[in-house]
Amino acid sequence: MVRMPDSEGSLRGRCGAIVQTPDLMPTILELAEAPCPETVQGKSMLPLIKGKEPPESRTAISSPSLVGRMLPSWITVTSEVGALLAARIDPSPRIESELYNLSGDPSETKNLYGEEDDVAEQLHSEMVKRLGSMGAEDEILSHWTEKTKTED
Amino acid sequence: MGTIGYTLKNLDRFASQSIVFDRAYVASHPTIPNRHDLFTGRYTFIYSMWSPLPENEIILSQLLRQAGYTTMLIVDTPHMIRDAHYFDRGFDGWWWIRGQEHDRYVTKPTKDSTERREAFGTQYLQNVSSRRFEEDYFVAQTMTSATKWLELNYDQHGKFFLHVDAFDPHEPWDPPKWYADMYNPDWKGGDVAGGAYVLGVDRPATSDLAEDELNRLRALYAGEVTMVDRWVGKLLQKIEDLELFENTATSERGIARMKKLRTYH
Questions:
Q1: Could you tell me which of A63, A33, A32, A26 has the C-alpha nearest to residue A48?
Q2: Contact A7/B26, CB-based, under 8 Å?
């Protein structure tokens, strides 16, 4: 939730665009009229807040650390219509891949993994693309480019 | 938020004055990786483990300070500060409200039962042993500190950045009884394990808990969320009283989810 200064006019309402935590820093910097460094990977939400930009189609990617072994490995990728939890069987056999149709099942009650292979593969390839564009090292990429193994 | 059945009158009111992002997702998680993303604007799970804030990364507070903002951090999330985690970097001032979760703070032993120790953890029970009033709960102390900082600094700075990081409604879920009673007034049982991370004690799986025990945990969580709402409301009221909404952007972000395998925040 972002409450804009009253001096900006009465900006309120809801926004359905996919946004993520790294988008907050560039948003605050833009609001503060401070320069945004090239290290920032997020994107300012200010155009969305001001309603000046129609929401582009984005995917969200969420994960615990992919380096080290502190936690089990799983990545969640969420698009406008679907969410895929991609899991590696090693080191955590407790977690299995899941797929949900967010348009028809927003509460994620029916796991479609293994039923909707096309959608799963599309989300998976989007995930790998995002990992690459975010600068993931080859070793991590190759770890996740193999098809997820839970069904083996 | 009201749609999930909690009475969140202050956050709902704030939402009605805000742009609400209905599809805002966390990137790196849990606690510290999430703050690492927030402070750097990066997807840090790609290259970083749970670790202290790296000294060579460019962070928000530092840039705002360079741009002439007075920067302040008010935090009760001990993980950001303890063991040299250094998330106070870039702030002109920072206050740490001590004692949350496993913060190594109070050493005086308590006389709590084994059942209660296994539900909440010995260190935590020591830390909260001197609580008397609702204002002694962590979110209350943290939001009160933020209102005090705003009072002390009223009209003192051309521009400022105040970052308030409250750990609640994270576990341990132990709100004052009146908040739990809003959701689960008939509970006659004792402490239910599963509402806290306790060192050395395995968290019960959801399937190992009886339905009334799960409902108890849900009520404790809902009560904790409601307490957060009340105290965030006091901070928002202070911002309004100081007429800061006129030229200040204010934002609230939280994460909440009951997962299937275990109860957690």
A1: A26
A2: no
